[in-house]
Write a structure and sequence with these properties.
300 residues; alpha/beta; Arc Repressor Mutant, subunit A; 3 domains; 5-stranded mixed beta sheet
């Protein structure tokens, strides 16, 4: 069945791993950690793969490299194959597996870390978890690449074959220092005109695809938690998820009602690649544990 694959030299696990590492790093230099010997080795191994498949696998991009369409497809096949071998090896050696979960910084701190801490004694041994801060777009790409096992995204529809499960709904609210005025129309009008001094979690807001990019911010933050911390100086307003509303300091802040904003509801979704479940059947149980635990946290 595989006679042609083994009819000539040039194909090996080491060469496929070199392609994956160079593709992930974005250059041979970075993949080799600036080691000249390893750079030469990676260059040679990828050239041997290109000769074997009669296809160009990498191309220059600025000061680095990127995978060609053929390179991306070979990397996808190789990653799938090597992950299967790795899972088989762990099973034979009875080793624990680490499941990588991508999400926004706010979701990780507010929901994911507490849920994982509570899951540990329930699940017992057999699995570890690692969290990574990532945007919806990056999570979608890495689920396809199988460099993430699970992700939490805002959008429900991802490109095939990725699948999602809703975890819970939430709303975005505008909060401002109460000292700015007791009546809502003033800050509401200032917001509409783009004149309200705001701390905006631009990276997380971009995933919502709701606010225009021209909405200026006095302070741009990585996440909603940082925006809330900046607002607590009582000099800035902030757009915050309802679950981060400043309840403890409500006397110092007031919510500004904006019909266009208040009418939108967002959902967190747990996302995964079904190919992962075929490679590692145990991942289905971890997915179900996560879905239940995170849904309970979001609902609180």
């Amino acid at each position: 069945m595989f006679t042609r694959l083994f009819a000539e030299s040039g194909l090996s696990l080491d060469r496929l791993r070199a392609l994956l590492e160079v593709g992930a790093a974005g250059s041979i230099v970075k993949a080799a950690d600036a080691d000249p010997v390893r750079q030469s080795q990676y260059s040679r191994q990828i050239k041997e793969l290109e000769d074997f498949f009669r296809a160009r696998l990498i191309e220059r991009q600025g000061k680095g490299t990127r995978l060609t369409a053929s390179g991306k497809e070979l990397a996808r096949i190789s990653r799938f194959f090597l992950m299967g071998l790795s899972n088989f090896q762990r099973g034979c050696l009875a080793e624990e597996q680490t499941f990588r979960i991508g999400a926004s910084a706010t979701f990780i701190r507010q929901f994911l870390l507490p849920a994982l801490s509570a899951l540990a004694p329930v699940e017992g041994g057999g699995a570890r978890y690692a969290t990574e801060t990532a945007s919806d777009q990056e999570i979608e790409r890495r689920l396809h690449d199988l460099t993430l096992d699970f992700g939490v995204v805002v959008k429900a529809t991802l490109s095939r074959p990725l699948q999602t499960r809703a975890l819970g709904a939430w709303k975005l609210e505008l909060w401002v220092p109460r000292a700015w005025g007791q009546s809502e129309p003033k800050p509401a009008q200032a917001f509409t005109a783009g004149q309200l001094p705001l701390a905006l979690a631009r990276k997380e807001l971009d995933d919502l695809d709701l606010l225009p990019r021209e909405q200026e911010a006095i302070l741009e933050c990585d996440g909603f938690l940082e925006a809330r911390a900046a607002m607590e100086s009582r000099q800035l307003g902030a757009l915050l998820p309802a679950f981060l509303a400043p309840a403890k300091s409500a006397k110092s802040f007031c919510r500004v009602h904006l019909p266009d904003l208040d009418s939108h509801a967002f959902n967190f979704h747990l996302a995964w690649n079904p190919r992962l479940l075929r490679l590692n059947p145990h991942a289905a149980r971890r997915r179900d544990y996560l879905a239940v635990a995170l849904a309970e946290r979001v609902a609180r």
